[in-house]
Amino acid sequence: KFKIIKSILKLIMLRYLFENTKSIGIIGHQNPDIDCLSSIFAIADISSQLNTDFQIYLKKPLPEKYSFLNYANHHIDLEIKSNHCKFISVDCANYKRLMHHPDPLKLINIDHHKSNTNYGSLNIVDISSNSTSQLIFKLLQNQNLHISKDLANNILAGIYADTLSLQTKNVNSEVLRTCSKLLRLGASLEKVVKNLNKISFQNLKTLGKVLLNSKIHKNYAKSRIHGDLNKDHLRISSYYLNQIPNTKMSVLMTENKKGEVRTSLRSDTISVHELAKKFNGGGHQTASGFEYKKLN
Q1: pLDDT per residue as tens digits for the range 28-53
Q2: Strand, coil or helix: what is 88?
Q3: 192 close to 153: Cβ distance less than 8 angstroms
């Protein structure tokens, strides 16, 4: 009962902050994925509904392939220029991984990761949600806010991507009911699938390198390549590496010219999140990662 009361109070506080704050800055984690971007744009939609000025911040221009998301064409700044009253961070488990670092006392933290460190002045963290997009859908319903066709499409994209096309273990009846509601609200599964499953020629070449370099060691598959892979390269390559039969885990290591190594862990049977934590990384139980600098 105490947890329920506490959750309700947090939602009341969040609504109050939206309605009584002149300006909000919206941020996510470094190298944002679809769930992070969908959540950022959903918060922008909520801000607009509640007549609160907002500004979206990223570190790099948004790739063209994400232009199908609502608010993707809204003005996006790459550096924080305004002294906003509040900042909202989405889909980020710890303060260090944020793409920008505002004053924590001004920060509202909305996330679904089990490893979240509650770094904000207000923390709305729900580990029962399979994605931050699903958590925001719950917030929208709880506060009786309007969910337009475009907003429903954004949320569906976030859920679909973060569950690896509805294939992860945390896809339960609630997730499917949420997707059903979003479709009834006008979201297009065809549009989401078509845009998220596009594979560019470069992605195919990268996938070829990953598979060519792959090896099986005991009960896990591994591959290591050189190159600064983007989020799509990692997602697609890690997915296929993890499909090799009779393996419990896959490890994909990519090294850039600076000697920075990004390691992506995937498994359907063991908690790779615990392994990633040992190297100051994070993520989900079945999909996590960490980075380190190679020593000379």
Answers
A1: 998 899 999 999 999 999 999 999 99
A2: strand
A3: yes
